[in-house]
From TrEMBL:
SMART domains tied to this protein: THAP
Keyword match Zinc-finger: yes
Residues covered by region (Disordered): 111-151
Molecular function (Gene Ontology), one example: sequence-specific DNA binding
Organism (species): Branchiostoma floridae
Top-rank lineage group of the source organism: Eukaryota
Bias-annotated ranges (Polar residues): 118-128
Domain THAP-type, chain residue ranges per copy: 1-87
Name of the protein in its database record: Peroxynitrite isomerase THAP4-like isoform X3
UniProt xrefs under InterPro entries: THAP1/10 (IPR026516), THAP_Znf (IPR006612)
Amino acid sequence: MPTSCCALNCTNRKDKGSRKKFFRIPAEPGRRAAWLRALKRSDFEQGKKNPTAAWTPRGHERVCSDHFISGNPSKDPADPDYVPSLFNLPTSASCNRSRNPVAKKDRYMRAAKRLRVSSENEAPPTSLNDEEMIADPPPESVETLRDPLPESVETLREQLTKVQEEK
């Protein structure tokens, strides 16, 4: 039996010589719900109101590669190909915003490249050899390392006490 795409208005079929790839709707509940929302099947939406009219995908439903920007679904939730996004749906007059999934994929690829480049550019921690550790002169005394902050706090307390006594 030939496989056909379950996306709305898609007539792609898997026949001999067909170069299209077909992918099962995921079984994982969260990802499956995202795919079903993306498919925008009106009979699926009607099923929320009338369960007898609902379209529920069975094990044989497939989505073709035409509905993915790269032609394959991704397992990365940040990737635009995590869910199918290219559809031949009728345009709505109420929706003025044009969403370009190819541009979304380009943005994702640029962001992934930036992350890869930034992780490569991070300097690895350098280890000090024995000579470098000895090269620093030891501190002259413990007094030079002592923090002057407690002394200034004590001075401020004394000044506050004097001001309060004057009142």
